[in-house]
Amino acid sequence: MTSLRSRLLISFTALLAAALLMFGVIGWLVAREAMANDVDDFLRAKATLLGRLVSVNRLRIEPWIEQELQVQERHFMLQVFGADGGFAGKSSNLAAAIPLSDEARRSEHPAGNAVIETLHVDGRAYRAATHPRRELWGDPVTLYAQALMPLDAVHARERRLLVWLVGCGMGVLAAGGVAAWHLSRQWLRSVSNLEEAARGLSRAELGLHRLFVPADDAELAALAASFNQLLDRLEGAHATQQRFTSDASHELRTPLTVLRGEIEVALRKPRSAEEYREVLVSNKEEIERLSRLTENMLALAHVDVGEAITQRELVNVSELCAGVVARLQPLAAERRIALQHEDGNEGPLSVNGDRLALERVMLNLIENALRYTPGGESVTVRVSKLPPWIEIEVIDTGGGIAAEHLPHLFERFYRVDKARSRAHGGSGLGLSIVKALVEAHGGGVRVRSEVGKGSVFTVRLPIA
Ligand code: ADP
Description:
Layout lengths: L3 H50 L9 H7 L1 H4 L2 E6 L4 E4 L11 H4 L9 E7 L2 E11 L6 E10 H53 L14 H50 L5 H32 L8 E4 H18 L3 E6 L6 E4 L1 H17 L6 E9 L2 E8 L21 H6 L6 H11 L3 E7 L3 E9 L2
Parallel strand pairs: 7-9
Antiparallel strand pairs: 1-2, 1-5, 3-4, 4-5, 6-8, 9-10, 10-12, 11-12
Adenosine-5'-diphosphate binds next to helix 9 and helix 11.
């Protein structure tokens, strides 16, 4: 696994090297071309000047001409040829005469224009400029003046340029690499600070620490901030879970304590069959409470792992509500409550969802209404169509709920009156299950209530 830093460094250096190489090659080609042109211009000028200085009657290169043209200083050679192209004289720095080429001798070259060519003699190459001298335009050539330069010298200059280019390129590359190394260390220092802080967090108490959000680095600040948000959520989830566990164990303990107490009292002395029966009936009630509680906890656990909806189908809500109302009529009658079902909609109102889950929602709401409403009052279940929603209201004319309880009503284990709820066998999980199931169907639930007047629980589900 390569580190981010070395990857950064390698990419940067590779990019820099590619850019340098490209510019170096282009620069070298351009410079070489310019140097070659320079040499040609130089030789052409020297040949032309030589043509003017040499006397037609004394076809020789006198020392003063060499001096005048700076032959020694500038490392080039001179030759003169007669009108017929025969060798006539050379500068002292040229060991042996080099014959005039056929190309240079061609008399149709216009006056003033030197012929530039590369000559190969005895394994050495020369660049040569040959100037054919004419006295007047159209006159025949009277002499050929030639300036030469060994190509070794030209190539040596090119090589020097190449060495310079490569050297400078290497230098820039090395400097760039070192700079990138330092810069990347500086940039990544914030990352490693963050990493260190995060590692420290996992050891520390979750609730106490948050990552420092650097002010001068937008990306890292965003990273730290979202990490902190994650910690907030984790902490929230952790707290909820702890509360749930302690509430749940408390809820489980109460019926167990009652059971143990009843059994211990019953066992203290021999009792009649009738007395034992009474104890068993009471035990059965507590056990039923326990199993309802565990069932509810299981339901919530399913919701928590995203299994609120186990199978989806088209559920006719009007029919489902009518069914639940019919099932609860005996309970309503027992409590002397008028349980009504109002549904003025034509055609079926359907939801795409889990039939059992939706049935549980309606059962919980209507059972609550029946439980917390005194006899003689009424409970109404009203189904209406409010596109894109199906709205189901469970309206009771019971005692209502005080405003301070309303925001917490859907929380797990929340009960307005613990003793009263327990007397009904409630554990405070019913409404939290309703909320979770309705939300899993893409809907919502809310409550309006007024003490002394009654409560309205409203469920909205999206129409299929
Ligand atoms: P429980 O198992 O205690 O009924 P719920 O979650 O179903 O738990 O309800 C939470 C609390 O909300 C109940 O303890 C009760 O005090 C209150 N409540 C629910 N429905 C009604 C209602 N229709 N009228 C008055 N109070 C209600």
